[in-house]
User: Fold this.
Amino acid sequence: MKYDVTVIGSGPGGYVAAIRCAQLGMKTAIIERYNTLGGTCLNVGCIPSKALLDSSEHYHNAKESFGSHGILLKDLQVDIVQMVSRKRDVVDQTVKGIEFLMKKNKIDVFHGHGSFLDANTIQVAKADGTKEQIQTAKVIIATGSKPIVPDIFNYDKKRVITSTEALELQEIPKRMVIVGGGVIGLEIGSVFARLGTEIEVVEFLDRIIPGMDGDCSKELQRSLKKLNMKFHLGHKVNKVTANKKGVAVGVESKKGDQSFVLEADYCLVAIGRKPYTDKLDPEKAGIRVDEKGRVEIDEHMQTNVPGIFAIGDVVRGAMLAHKAEEEGIFVAEYIAGQKPHINYNLIPGVVYTWPEVSAVGQTEEQLKEAGIPYKAGKFPFRALGRARASTDLDGMVKVLAHQVTDEILGVHIVGPRAADLIAEAVAVMEYRGSAEDLARMSHAHPTFAEAVKEAALAATANRAINM
Assistant:
């Protein structure tokens, strides 16, 4: 079998790359080691976690705030089995959608573990033990990432778990220890905290979501504490012991002046992910991989071997599904002779807790470190009529603009629908708009988006109207 392009991995980056290649007239194949398409994101990541986040938020609102709306309930309870079943249905529907897109675009799908035999020959090892070879002119590596779980955690997939197992729990734990205060840990933690689990987060750094703006970290931690989530910042885990009934997590401060043991039903390890290149055999094609296991690429996403490209979590940069998608499209169009472009500074990041957190551009800390003169405008959601009407009062919008040119350098949001609101900032920043531009755009009233306008006004000589 001969193809113009073969994509290894069917996650957001891989399947989008395959579709764009097919749209551009290339005979395309895609290889997926699992039985279903969609990779980590669709099967055990983005999509299932958002399904459980929504379900748990519905329950939390019914329990905590329906009464204030005049909605009275009796005998409210959680059916975690049904909650997980619904999540599986959402995943199944999404996966079937990808299968349809492959057929629609005439992309050949191979299920099995793909590996290089040489630069133009890919072997597919199938579940039944048979093997098949594919000849291809070009290759796009899109094999994604997997959780980092050091040996010290004694990862057993039963009591010491990652997000993959957490999304399949058939019970509501009484207590859960989460190692890592980043996106994955906080999203999963907020799911179970809403359902009544006592959550304790151990984070080595001095704040949660450390890659985001400091004000976002403070705002989110303040909100999560209302869910009775507890935080041990500046601490590390030195030992995890599990038995059939639970875990004991040994914790100590970075300074070494404090140590204690946290006992819980489960320990969720969420300290990051690493590139997945297991048994890909890149060396057989002459492909270079760096010390972190990432496939080395140039500015065109091409490896040191002409005609072989790599995208998504397996290469440098943020591990985000939408970043992988943009890179997939970039590579397809580059192969076709076009001149695509990605502005990595304008790829937004999102935390799907509630309130949500979203950001694009530079943080205030980054601007200070770079010595860039800037001005900041902030506006709290509680000052909005729309937020009061929906009782979504936590959070704020922060706009950072250049002190001299007024160009927007960063937008950071903690609040309701922050994941959707950030697209407005991305659009304005893509055209190098100013805080004045954003402030003068008409925003419908009453909406959450008004907070973005008001923050932009605040960044232009403190002109916020409703504060």
In short: Residues 2-147+274-342 form a domain with the FAD/NAD(P)-binding domain fold (CATH 3.50.50.60). Residues 53 and 191 are 5 Å apart (CA to CA). The two ends are 66 Å apart (CA to CA). The chain is about 30% helix and 25% strand.
